[in-house]
């Protein structure tokens, strides 16, 4: 590949990533606001118990969705090359294979979902006045929405392989707006959870029909009948990576999707509703960061396929530095602001708040998840699914064992001790795999940098503590907003002061200065990766 080709590839990746990020931010902001309004109305109209049921059922269906078992990730990886080469025949072959696989998965989820319905009474402890018949009916509506999603999910793989993630983003945003508007109207008119769920099912079904028609028009060759099956070797590659991803999927579900189920089963449904608000805010605000990192996975796939290991290593370090900066900012903000926001600004009720030690565990896992996101995304882009295939199983088992043992002794806090401990394993093991396989290096530099980043973040968190006690002795919208400003300025100024001379920062700065020439006057040195 010539230098001119590399330059065009680089600019193409950047432009597509920028488009994905812009639409991702707009979408996430809209969805965050809409979900916040919808959740607020839900809590005030239907109360804590049904809020807990809603959250627990969402996680139960996420557990059921492990039957997807990673085939989507394996196939997305397999599509990178034929998409880059514009090999329509091969794309058609993979998409036909994908379609058959996902229709099978939909059937399996439906059967498994019906099979576990008799056990709902053991998952939902103290559901108030709700009867098991009502709970079962609600559950079947959740199951219906999950099953029908698999009839169109496979089509998005082609869109994302082409780095056109914004198409899926825009469709999901519009669907969320319509769904939320209809559901909020139903809550005000009928104050009924069943009608609320039925409204969602109708909108979701209409969306699936629209997506099918739209993507068929966008990619008309997907309707061709003349499709060659994948070769035995190609099928074997997908099968090998899927087998490895089975372990990843099962382990991730056991670690990430079981916390509220454990709380609902061993504590009560109402407590799971309290936890769900914290998780909701962390997830949706955190999505503003995730948009950036998820939007460049396809671009990294292209980097891995076309560029040198040195270039890959530089971009990985820049990617990781930026993640630590942003996730650290989120962690400091969440630790100091979550409880005042929920208990003092939003719901104004201490009954909806968690102990600060539990919040600290949630926030610590959020920050470490940033590091895991970088490692996982680079692994996906590089197709490294087999090397650590048993790690998620170990993590999942450890999380379940520790969480169940400690929830009986110390309640909700014990569940998140299990989550944090099990997550740390990936932060310790995966850097070695990435550095050895992708960069031919030892990972000591990774851990050295990790300690530096964490030290700065913890120092800022400690310094902010007395300021928070001073400014928010009485929580109000004004004092909360003032605290947001203080944390934003203090954290970013400290991070800038400590790391502004690093190569990673220089690369980021020059990338931004290229878009905003006025910033060039600040004169930070150029990194070797500048284009």
Structure description:
With 531 residues, the protein is mainly alpha-helical. The protein has a domain at 26-245. It is 82% helix and 0% strand. It has helices at 3-64, 71-84, 88-116, 120-123, 132-149, 153-161, 165-190, 193-218, 232-256, 259-266, 269-295, 297-306, 309-346, 356-382, 391-410, 412-439, 444-471, 477-499, 503-515. α1 packs antiparallel against α11 (269-295) and α13 runs antiparallel to α18.
Features:
mainly alpha, disordered C terminus, 82% helix, 531 residues, 0% strand
Class computed from helices, strands and strand pairing = mainly alpha
* General form: globular
Range of helix content: over 70%
Q: End-to-end distance, in Å?
A: 17 Å
Strand content: under 5%
Largest sheet: none
Give the number of helices: 19
Radius of gyration: 24 Å
**Total beta strand runs:** 0
Poorly predicted residue ranges? 525-531
How confident overall, as mean pLDDT? 84
The helix/strand order is: HHHHHHHHHHHHHHHHHHH
List the helices and strands and how they pair.
Elements lengths: L2 H62 L6 H14 L3 H29 L3 H4 L8 H18 L3 H9 L3 H26 L2 H26 L13 H25 L2 H8 L2 H27 L1 H10 L2 H38 L9 H27 L8 H20 L1 H28 L4 H28 L5 H23 L3 H13 L16
Helix pairs in contact: 1-5, 1-7, 1-11, 1-12, 2-3, 2-6, 2-9, 2-12, 3-5, 3-6, 5-8, 6-7, 7-8, 9-15, 10-11, 10-15, 11-13, 11-14, 12-14, 13-14, 13-17, 13-18, 13-19, 14-16, 15-16, 17-18
């Amino acid at each position: 590949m010539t230098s001119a080709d590399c330059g065009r590839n680089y600019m193409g990746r950047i432009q597509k990533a920028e488009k994905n990020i812009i639409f991702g931010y707009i979408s996430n902001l809209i969805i965050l606001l809409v979900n916040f309004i919808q959740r607020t109305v839900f809590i005030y109209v239907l109360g804590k118990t049904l809020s807990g049921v809603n959250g627990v059922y969402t996680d139960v269906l996420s557990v059921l969705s492990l039957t997807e078992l990673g085939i989507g990730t394996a196939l997305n990886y397999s599509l990178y090359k034929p998409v880059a080469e514009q090999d329509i025949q091969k794309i058609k072959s993979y998409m036909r294979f994908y379609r058959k696989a996902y229709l099978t998965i939909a059937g399996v989820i439906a059967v498994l979902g019906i099979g576990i319905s008799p056990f709902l009474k053991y998952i939902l402890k103290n559901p108030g006045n709700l009867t098991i018949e009502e709970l079962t009916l609600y559950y079947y509506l959740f199951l219906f929405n999950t099953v029908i999603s698999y009839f169109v999910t496979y089509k998005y793989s082609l869109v994302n392989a082409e780095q056109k993630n914004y198409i899926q983003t825009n469709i999901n945003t519009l669907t969320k707006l319509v769904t939320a508007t209809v559901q909020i109207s139903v809550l005000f008119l009928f104050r009924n959870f069943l009608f609320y769920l039925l409204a969602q099912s109708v909108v979701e079904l209409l969306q699936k029909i629209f997506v099918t028609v739209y993507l068929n028009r966008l990619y008309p060759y997907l309707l061709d009948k003349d499709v060659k099956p994948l070769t035995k070797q190609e099928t074997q590659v997908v099968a090998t990576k899927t087998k490895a991803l089975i372990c990843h999927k099962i382990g991730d579900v056991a670690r990430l999707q079981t916390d509220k189920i454990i709380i609902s089963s061993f504590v009560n449904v109402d407590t799971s509703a309290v936890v769900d608000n914290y998780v909701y805010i962390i997830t949706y605000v955190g999505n503003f960061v995730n948009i950036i990192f998820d939007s460049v996975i396809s671009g990294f796939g292209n980097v891995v396929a076309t560029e040198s290991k040195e270039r890959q290593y530089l971009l990985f370090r820049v990617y990781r530095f930026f993640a630590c900066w942003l996730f650290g900012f989120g962690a400091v903000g969440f630790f100091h602001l979550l409880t005042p926001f929920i208990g003092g600004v939003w719901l104004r009720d201490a009954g909806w708040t968690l102990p600060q030690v539990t919040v600290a565990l949630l926030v610590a896992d959020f920050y470490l998840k940033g590091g895991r996101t970088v490692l996982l995304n680079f692994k996906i882009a590089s197709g490294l699914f087999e090397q650590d295939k048993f790690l998620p199983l170990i993590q999942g088992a450890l999380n379940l064992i520790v969480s169940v043992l400690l929830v009986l002794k110390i309640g909700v806090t014990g569940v998140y001790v299990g989550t944090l401990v099990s997550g740390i394993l990936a932060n310790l093991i995966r850097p070695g795999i990435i550095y050895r396989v992708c960069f031919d290096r030892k990972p000591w530099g990774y851990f050295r940098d990790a300690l530096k980043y964490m030290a700065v973040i913890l120092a800022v968190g400690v310094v902010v503590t007395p300021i928070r006690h001073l400014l928010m002795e009485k929580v109000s919208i004004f004092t909360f907003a003032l605290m947001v400003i203080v944390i934003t300025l203090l954290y970013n100024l400290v991070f800038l002061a400590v790391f502004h001379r690093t190569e990673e920062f220089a690369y980021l700065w020059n990338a931004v200065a290229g878009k905003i020439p006025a910033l060039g006057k600040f004169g930070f040195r150029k990194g070797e990766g500048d284009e």
